[in-house]
Design goal:
Structural class: alpha/beta
CATH class of the largest domain: Alpha Beta
Strand content: 15-25%
CATH superfamily of the largest domain: P-loop containing nucleotide triphosphate hydrolases
Oligomer: single chain
Strand order of the largest sheet: 5-6-7-3-8-9
Shape: globular
Number of domains: 2
Radius of gyration: 18 Å
Number of strands: 9
Number of helices: 9
Largest sheet: 6 strands, mixed
Length: 257
């Protein structure tokens, strides 16, 4: 386990893809250590690109990302960053448990079969530890990928629509059971989601992004108690924050700063 959580600093980030697609232009943000931040915005606005830049999987054309003052690629190599993107990317020749345990090996951590089994149970894969990805449904593969992202107790957790491939009942259960795991270990989490309710439920802060290239058009605090209890989503405070985020998303492009 890492010995501390990590703050993230993004300064003047710019990324243009081949064909002149400006995904990110002059993006500035700081993410406090131990905080969960949801990124919401129109499809194609650059949310996933931002996660890839923070992870060090892609390099910016301009600007920089620092995680506790260090380059993200360096932090990822030392196992400080875990990523769960929309594509679970499990190795087909390994079982579900072996795919989860592989993250511990790559992070140079001691093997912990008990922790692997615990996480598989939490994500609803108890009884499927020995099953290979081809025999799992899409939602089950995504759940295994989430367990893999959590098993190393990372300083930084990057989640791109982590519950998008699972059914609604499982989605609600995962949203209830998993955040306390990364919050208890002080993990700094960035979450991309298209669900406003999910953003309010999971996050301490919501950044609403403009149409491409991504710029922050609203920065909304989520001062709701943790752990989030059943029934909270029906409270006036929850609905007020959800409405504020919806209004920011619905603002005309001409109103964006």
């Amino acid at each position: 386990m890492q010995d501390s959580s990590a703050g993230i600093s993004c300064r003047a980030l710019t990324k243009t893809w081949p064909g002149g697609v400006h995904a990110v232009a002059g993006f500035d943000a700081d993410f406090a250590a131990g905080q969960t931040t949801a990124l919401i915005g129109p499809s194609g606005c650059g949310k996933s690109t931002l996660l890839r830049l923070v992870a060090g999987l892609d390099l910016p054309d301009g600007g920089q990302v620092r995680i506790n003052g260090l380059d993200p690629a360096h932090q990822r190599r030392r196992g400080a960053i875990s990523i769960a993107f929309q594509d679970p990317s499990l190795l087909p020749w390994l079982s579900a448990a072996q795919n989860v345990a592989l993250a511990q090996k790559l992070a140079r951590q001691h093997a912990d079969p008990g922790k692997v089994a615990h996480l598989l149970r939490l994500v609803g894969l108890e009884g499927f530890a020995a099953t290979r990805p081809a025999a799992l449904s899409g939602g089950m593969r995504q759940r295994a990928a989430i367990a893999r992202a959590l098993v190393t107790a990372p300083q930084v957790l990057l989640l791109d629509e982590p519950f998008g491939a699972v059914d609604e009942l499982t989605r609600r259960q995962l949203a209830q059971d998993l955040p306390p795991l990364w919050q208890a270990q002080g993990t700094t989490a960035l979450l991309v989601t298209h669900s406003l309710a999910e953003a309010v439920w999971l996050a301490d802060r919501i950044l609403v992004l403009s149409p491409r290239p991504a710029r922050i058009i609203a920065d909304i605090a989520v001062p709701l108690p943790r752990p989030r209890r059943p029934g909270l989503a029906d409270s006036p405070a929850f609905r007020r924050i959800e409405a504020e985020a919806r209004a920011a998303l619905s603002a005309p492009a001409s109103a964006c700063p």
